Amino acid sequence: MKAWLTRFVRESRWAIPLLLTAVCLALVAAISTRPDLPDEQARKEQILRGRHLVTHHGCGDCHGGVGNPAADGWLVGWRETSLPNMQDYQIGPFRTYARNLTPDNKTGLGRFSERQIFNALRYGLRPGETPDVEITSTTPGEGNHPANPKYLAPPMPWPSFRHMTDEELWDIAAYLKHGLKPVANQVPDSEGPPDFWAGEYTVEKIGPYPTPGFPTANEQMPTTGSE
Ligand code: HEC
Questions:
Q1: Closest ligand 1 atom to the C-alpha of 126?
Q2: Is residue 190 lining ligand 1, measured as CB closer than 6 Å?
Q3: What's the average model confidence in pLDDT over 113-128?
Q4: Mean pLDDT on 124-151
Q5: Is residue 10 scored above 80 in pLDDT?
Q6: Which distant-in-sequence residues (6+ apart) come within 8 Å of 100 by Cβ?
Q7: How far apart are CA 25 and CA 20, in angstroms?
Q8: pLDDT, mean over the chain
Q9: Which of 54, 72, 88, 61 is nearest to 169 (CA)?
Q10: 99 in ligand 1 pocket by Cβ < 6 Å?
Q11: How far apart are CA 61 and CA 75, in angstroms?
Q12: Exposed / middle / buried, residue 216 (Cβ in 10 Å: 0-12, 13-18, 19+)
């Protein structure tokens, strides 16, 4: 220790409390400025935004519970039951099942990261068969988009959901991973074509991402003075 500091510590009875306070303040400053440590309040607000989005985007219409987070079977996925709206889907020759969105490790989203859930909603990529990486292109083989993408089976409406903002998709992922209790419910695997629907999810069929500029041929600029 420097000589002046040693003398200060020895001779002043305030030295130790002052030093301790300084250390505490430095710690608090370090913790509160760390960008990767989301503060609890912000996390809670994010989860509530995600819950709101999930409720009004009809996720529960297919994944269970319709629009009621208190309902039996909320987002637990398809199961053999007479609960409202619970059904499987016949898509051409294939039968598909809405999956378990609760964070159960074995049967739900527990084993996937928030980024894998984000990639499912933005790019339609099956979280179980897609690496946990940041994807920057909608074109297979570019920007970490897998060369042979394995897409989610219809009727999962990701071609519409992908137009939500980044923030909205992260909010949904946060709600599913951290705002729900895990429920074990093993949903049967959806059937599908060998190309995992790649032939169905082309730009010609589902449109471009992001959306074309306004106004398209179907739209118009409002004229001033019009009712
Ligand atoms: C019209 C029915 C329908 C709606 C509405 C719907 N989904 Fe799905 N979802 C499905 C089906 C069917 C699957 C299974 C696809 C498969 O097996 O490949 C699925 C799969 C998923 C998966 C992949 C899970 C996994 O383990 O592979 C996620 C994540 C998901 N949905 C999230 C959502 C969210 C979030 C919403 C609301 C914003 C939503 N879904 C709304 C039908 C739907």
A1: 27
A2: yes
A3: 98
A4: 97
A5: no
A6: 63, 75, 76, 77, 107, 108, 109, 183, 185, 186, 187
A7: 9
A8: 91
A9: 54
A10: yes
A11: 9
A12: exposed
Contact (Cβ atoms closer than 8 angstroms) between residue 23 and residue 31: no
pLDDT at 86: 85
User: Tokens for 153?
Assistant: 């089976």
Read off the tokens for 34: 């760390």
Q: CA-to-CA distance for 49 and 38, rounded, in angstroms?
A: 15
* pLDDT at position 152 over 80: yes
> Using a CB cutoff of 8 Å and minimum separation of 24, what contacts does 142-148 make?
148/195, 148/196, 148/198
**Predicted confidence (pLDDT) per residue in 72-120, tens digit:** 999 999 998 877 778 999 999 999 999 999 999 999 999 999 999 999 9
- Tokens of residue 152, six digits: 């989610």
* Whole-angstrom distance, CA of residue 73 vs CA of residue 15: 61
Which amino acid, 213?
Answer: G
User: How buried is 124 (Cβ within 10 angstroms: 0-12 exposed, 13-18 middle, 19+ buried)?
Assistant: buried
Between CA 8 and CA 138 the distance in angstroms is: 64
Q: Under the phi-then-psi rule, with left for phi > 0, alpha for psi from -120 to 50, and beta for the rest, what region is 94?
A: beta
Instruction: Report residue 169's pLDDT band, with 50, 70 and 90 as the boundaries.
Output: very high
> Is 150 a pocket residue for ligand 1 (Cβ < 6 Å)?
no
